Every structure is written in C-alpha cells, then in structure tokens.
TrEMBL record:
It comes from the Bacteria. It comes from Saccharopolyspora taberi. This is NAD(P)-dependent oxidoreductase. Residues 5-232 form the NAD-dependent epimerase/dehydratase domain. SUPFAM superfamilies: NAD(P)-binding Rossmann-fold domains. InterPro entries: Epimerase_deHydtase (IPR001509), NAD(P)-bd_dom_sf (IPR036291), NAD(P)-dependent_oxidoreduct (IPR051783). Gene3D superfamilies: NAD(P)-binding Rossmann-like Domain.
Amino acid sequence: MPLRVFVAGATGVVGRTLLPRLRERGHHVTALVRQDGRLEGGDLVDAVAVADIMDPRKLRQVVQDATPDVVVGQVTAFRHPDLDVALHRTSRLRETGTKNLVNAAVSAGAGRIITQSAATAYSPSGHDVLDEDAPLWTDAPGRWGEAVRAVAAMEEAVLTCPRIDGVALRYGALYGPRTWYAPGGVIHERVRGSALPLVGEGVGLTSFTHTEDAASAVIEVLTGGDPGAYNVVDNEPAESTEWLPAYARIVGGPTPVSLTLEQAKAQLDWLTVHQLTEQRGATNFRLRETLGWRPTWPSWREGFATLCGLWPG
C-alpha cells in the first residue's frame, strides 16, 4: 500500500540511497532540504520541502503541508571532514533537531517516525557482540560522551512519545558511496597515508553497515516491526587487526603501522584509540528474526572490494 513519506536528511548518504527505493515501491515522497536546489535527482521525489530541522516553527509547517503517514529522519553532519566538528553538529541535530521532528510529525498526524541512530554508542563492556538491550555509553568522556548522550536523548524522544510509533535504526560504521570509506573519503585518505595504525592487540570490534542496507532497513520498518530500537549491521563484526589491513590492501595503501597503546594515546585522538582497541560490535539478530531482513552486503569484505571497483557489483 503506497504511503506518504517525509524524508529529512534526503541529501545524506542514506537518504540518497533511500529515495529511489521509496519511488520503486510507489510511495509519495517529500524530501526536506535546508536550501532550495540542494537535492540532486529531483525526479525521485514528489515534493521538496525547504526548512531547517533546527527551526521548529518552519519545520512544523512543512511537515503539516506534506501530511505524511511516516516521517524518516536521516539528518547528520558527518559530511564535515573534521570529526570533532562533525560529532558536535550531529549531536545538536540528533538531540534538538529530532525533538523538533517528532513534534512536527505528531502535529501532522503521522503514525510512525523512523530515525537514524548508532550501534557504535554501546558501552564497551560485557560481551563482544551486543544486542539492543546493552546500555549506551552515556558517561563516555569528551566529545564522544556528548555524542552518545545525544543519541540517548534522540531515542528517548522517538521511542517514548505516546502519540506516535517510534523506531530507532542503530547503524554501524556506514560505508558506501560518498562515505568516509569511499575513495577520497576521510578514512580512505588516512589509510592510504599510513595515518591509521594498528594499536596494541587490535581487538576493538567494528560492525559495518553499507548504505544500501541502511536504506533497505528503513523500507522494512515503514510499516513492519514493533516500535523500538534495531541494530542494522552486517553479519561479520571485525577486529581492527582484521579489517584495517584488509581495507588497506583493497585501497592500495601501505600496510598499517603498529603502535603500542601508550604510543597511540600520545599520537592519536581518544576516539580513534577507543575504536581500535575497545569498541564492541553489534548483532542484527532482532531485525533478522522479527522482520526477515537480510543485509545485501553480509560481509564488509565484499562491500569494501565492490566500493573500490575490485568486486563485480
């Protein structure tokens, strides 16, 4: 059954992948942009709404005008190359912007809201691979703590509002076209420049999510699944000692250098050390078992190779 879908973050890496999938299924799509003319491929949507998600009055107006059945939030600021700046801006968008979006969706009479969350926000304790009941690391230090607290506030706004069904999709490390792992992206350039080392025993786990799989999960939960949080990750969480050298080979970079933990703390930012040494992975079991969702890219190995033109797509 065709739905009226309002997409905030339509110009982001997930939004760009999501729009054609919505169109293929016959849904009526309104795309939110901050500035007119920002949306490439305008033929993929039925309407374009111009507003800033941080402007609650204007946002409420354009969402009401769209009369959506479902509101989808995929807004981040990770396009900015400086991670510290990107995290700070994304935190504000997630905490304040999402509350604005929930209020606008309720005001417009939408029945469901779906937002982008983060499987990287779990506390690095307990089991290596975590499910949705694991605690978020809200007392993490520095900018990362700010980011995780914003994720928690965003999910609270979405999942506890009694007037709308809320779904939080917790993505892993997003890769695909236009991401930091794509040619020319931040991670791609760091690895090619030998600026991302192995640290200690390299046991930090990363769960990856291709942007195509993030978009397919949105499609799955438009009408299916109970309200709540779902991890959207591939089937193969990988330690940094495994994925980083493999990625370096794929992109034609040098073998990553090895640093001790003490050397890494002296030379790298805190978040990079955390990701490489203690971050935990996530399981997609809940989404697989309740909705039958399966990742198109079950392993980051083929996904990275395809992204760099080394695997038949």
